[in-house]
User: What shape does this take?
Amino acid sequence: MNPLRKASKKLLEKHVYLVGTNHKAGSQLLRNTMHWMFDTLGATDSCQFGSSSRPITSKPGFNEDCTLHPTPIRFYNSISGKDILNLRKEAAFTGGMRGVIIIRDPLEMVVSSFCYHHRGAGAGLGLAPAKIMEMGPEEGVPAMVPYMLPVVRKMTSAYEVANPVRFEKFTNNSKDFDDTMREILVFLFGNEITEKQKQQVLDAAAVEDQNRGLEGFSEDPALNRGFNHTNDEEDMAAARRALHLIPEDLLAELQTHRTVLGYA
Assistant: This one.
């Protein structure tokens, strides 16, 4: 057996490791980079709350429900602050919890969600208006807000009780991608893993950095329900130009969340 993996197996049983995401806040990016990280460190089991197209580790290779099969490594999509606090209480009896969540500018989440659902992604999941594919940005961007506000509220509440990584830094350039991954590794493991192990994780996760032009899980439609989660930049720009059409009361709430999250 690879001595790196043998040593890591014991490490990954010391704490509860949580990965928390929310729709269009970089959920695929964080899940996929954490997938590479845990696989590289020799993870052999994981679970998730709710449904997802793929578990966060290659093994066991199928979806495990954390409520039925709690494991040290847990993936929680659509996470809130209350969820984090409850998991902290539970983990207090098992070595404590270490986790990472991701946040994004709420206005960009609205823009991204419109573009994503406008091209048919996530159809039938109740995450967008039924006729979103027939709507242009002027109609569709405001129509997406009532669907995205509950997501943003959860994300903000999670931010208020946990230190996040920011989608914007994660995707800015390759240096920021690597720096973000190093910050995650230090926060999760400190000196419990070697510099060699950290570099192995960085090398594996680099395929998720879109600035490098490589093809990781984020670029594989077969693993993302047939859709790449990266939107066309021209479509994003057109959607941004429609943000001013969001009803005043809804836009005000989005701006409040932006302020709390440090985007305004």
User: Anything to note?
Assistant: The two ends are 51 Å apart (CA to CA). Confidence is low (pLDDT under 50) at residues 221-227.
